[in-house]
Amino acid sequence: MTGEPTIKFTFAIDDPELDDERRQKIASKLLREIRDLDEVEKADRAEDLNPEAGSKPLFATLIGVLTAEVSMKNVKSFLGFLGDRLGDKPMKISVKVGDKEVNIEAKSQRELLESERIAKDLLAAMGDGKNG
Fold it and tell me: This protein's superkingdom (predicted)?
């Protein structure tokens, strides 16, 4: 009965040298691995909520973009996992807690781990963060 809020991470490899097919293969493999993690509450492909005219109207997925919901106590290990898998690739990450959202561009494992601090700051800003 923790009642601990989850942090929603949306992330994509932002490597201009990768084509869509390669990006999708990396994302598919990573999604399978993420779903196997005990630390992750839920993981999926990100859906395009504003598909362009002429594209599939419902449930259009974004190429190479994934989402994962993680409890605060598991954020560090989840980000460590991502860093191990993708630490050498530039990424765009969105950290969402409640209705607050921050976008981050990470080019290194250290910058990726900065997302944990940002998630904690968002929780504190919502009045849900407790010191320590």
Answer: Bacteria
